[in-house]
Amino acid sequence: MGDRGTKIHPALGFGTTRRPINKHAQAIRINQWGQDNSFATDKQDELRFGKGGVDDAEDAEVILHEYGHAMHFSQSPDFYKSNEAGAIGEGFADYWAVTVSTVVAPTPDPACVADWDSVAYTSKVPHCLRRVDLDLHYPADLSGEVHHDGQIWSRALWDIRNRLGHVKADTLILQGQFDFPGTTMPDLAQRTVDAARQLYGPGTASIVQAAFHARGIL
């Protein structure tokens, strides 16, 4: 990551003692996408934020979510090869949004994703685009819709964070994502367990494995 990026990654060693992730300034376009939606694109290497209701670029967690996809593009050109990998991507992006915001600017309900943006289209309080603490399980709760299914993955990551703290959790989660070939949740879960073992030893790996096991992924 370059100097204009978030300071989270250099603090975790990525780009210094570990492989870099998206180590360059990210192009941004705001209010040029005529829908209330946002996306990251690897074709032009930029993040585009839509407008409508609360404009997406006004919510830091929406920005962090889309940046999570950009990180995946950097870590593996094949990351989004399957629908299940797409769900992983959405789940990680939601996780990245809340793990960073909880460090930088905590909210009253940290598991609630994009609570400012979602004020425009939700009535239930708290207003949430999605959550990272739902009791969903793999494969029983897979619906085929990547944003819904991603909440299975994000819950496992959130549980890992709650057990290990954000520094260890974020580091091993990011490390496990390098060169992911866009396959399945069990595949990346095992890669993440292996990364935990390599970085922090068998005790940490057991905690990570248990979190994925609780979701039915391992």
Order of strands in the sheet with most strands = 1-3-2
Number of domains: 1
* Average pLDDT rating: 89
Q: Which homologous superfamily in CATH is the superfamily?
A: Neutral Protease Domain 2
CATH structural fold name? Neutral Protease, domain 2
Order of helices and strands: HEEEHHEEHHHH
Strand content: 5-15%
Q: Radius of gyration over alpha carbons?
A: 16 Å
List unreliable stretches of 5+ residues: 1-6
Q: Roughly how many Å apart are the termini?
A: 32 Å
Q: Return the CATH class.
A: Mainly Alpha
Helix content: 40-55%
User: Helices and strands: which structural class?
Assistant: mainly alpha
Number of helices: 7
Total strands: the figure is 5
Report the sheet with the most strands, covering strand number, pairing sense and barrel closure: 3 strands, mixed
What do these coordinates show?
By secondary structure, the protein is mostly helical. It has a single domain (8-214), classed as Orthogonal Bundle (Neutral Protease, domain 2). It contains seven helices and five strands. The chain has helices spanning 8-12, 60-75, 83-104, 146-164, 166-177, 185-200, 202-214; strands spanning 27-33, 38-41, 46-50, 112-113, 130-131. It has a three-stranded mixed beta sheet with strand order 1-3-2, with helices on one face. It has a two-stranded antiparallel sheet with strand order 4-5. Strand 2 (38-41) and strand 3 (46-50) form a beta hairpin. The chain is globular. The protein starts with 7 loop residues before the first helix and ends with a helix.
